[in-house]
Inverse folding.
């Protein structure tokens, strides 16, 4: 089916931000205690990661990530965006997301401001899907996607939590994507799937148990168990290739012909298993795990920006972005034919 310039939606550009200097694995080694999960493949630490500063907000991170977009595309393009879609891993304020604050900080007056929470580590793909639907339906000509991962230096660096194996894996970072009605870097296909039966399996726990908002002793961390990890590994290994292959089928592209695979990056095992399932060599799967750790929802756009900046993704290449969220309650994939960075 042919499309016209007016109905084609493109991921025109992406820009990112990593806070502070890299933090080495030795930082967590000094706090490590006996942990039943310490030898689990889920928690084998990266060499480095970045931490958000104590007084740095998600809005600060997004503003800093947007500088590259402004330099390349002009301030008017960002200020004039019709749609703003955001995702923040650890909202700075309770009850609502950062969308309104981001719009104000960037001088935007968008008709649509949406804060997505259910996309998790695949939030960038979900936001691409929402942006494409809104722009093709007449909601405007430009959308800004903003993703902030800020839990590593806050939740996981609490004095009690950082002794756990899970604390050494996450890293912080932020990314923004510019989506436009154009054929510059067309979105070829998107697949988003919700697995509601797994909703709520990724939980916060404290000792003694309490609800997340209730006062009490003990810091909160993610409630991992060997049984939960086994289930998450099985779901993630299956879901990410499934959604990527669904997009390949829709656009008529054999998986082996994907020029670059960009995924979220929970651990090395997932990264290896995903590229093997899609029969792609390591050099065609962007991997910054040892530089940045698990970047959660910011992982896909940060890896994409790195690939563009160093020439791993060239004009005309097809990039497949794919990921899954939480304990497997959501997965998504999107293919884009990259048109180059102007």
């Amino acid at each position: 089916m042919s499309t016209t310039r007016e109905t084609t939606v493109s991921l025109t550009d992406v820009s990112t931000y990593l806070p502070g200097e890299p933090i080495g694995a030795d930082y967590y080694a000094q706090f490590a205690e006996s942990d039943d999960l310490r030898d689990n493949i889920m928690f084998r630490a990266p060499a480095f990661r970045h931490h958000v500063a104590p007084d740095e907000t998600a809005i600060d991170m997004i503003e800093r990530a947007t500088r590259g977009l402004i330099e390349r595309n002009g301030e008017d393009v960002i200020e004039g965006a019709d749609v703003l879609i955001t995702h923040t891993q650890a909202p700075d304020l309770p009850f609502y997301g950062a969308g309104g604050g981001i719009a104000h900080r960037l001088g935007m007056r968008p008709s649509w401001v949406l804060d997505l929470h259910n996309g998790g580590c695949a939030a960038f793909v979900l936001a691409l899907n929402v942006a494409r639907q809104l722009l093709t339906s007449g909601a405007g000509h430009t959308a800004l996607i903003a993703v902030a991962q800020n839990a590593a230096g806050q939740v996981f660096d609490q004095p009690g939590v950082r002794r756990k194996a899970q604390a050494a894996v996450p890293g912080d970072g932020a990314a923004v994507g510019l989506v436009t009605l154009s054929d510059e870097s067309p979105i070829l296909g998107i697949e988003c799937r919700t697995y509601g039966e797994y909703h709520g399996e990724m939980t916060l726990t404290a000792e003694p148990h309490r609800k997340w908002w209730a006062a009490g002793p003990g810091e909160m961390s993610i409630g991992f168990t060997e049984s939960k990890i086994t289930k998450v590994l099985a779901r993630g290994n299956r879901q990410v290739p499934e959604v990527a292959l669904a997009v390949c089928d829709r656009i008529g592209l054999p998986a082996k012909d994907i020029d670059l695979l960009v995924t979220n990056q929970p651990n090395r095992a997932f990264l290896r298993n995903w590229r093997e399932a899609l029969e792609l060599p390591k050099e065609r799967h962007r991997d910054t795990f040892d530089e940045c750790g698990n970047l959660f929802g910011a992982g896909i756009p940060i890896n994409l920006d790195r690939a563009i900046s160093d020439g791993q993704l060239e004009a005309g290449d097809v990039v497949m972005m794919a990921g899954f969220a939480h304990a497997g309650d959501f997965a998504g994939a999107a293919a884009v034919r990259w048109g180059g960075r102007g």
Notes: Residues 1-5 have pLDDT under 50 and may be disordered. The first helix runs from residue 26 to 29. The chain has two domains: 9-183, 188-338.
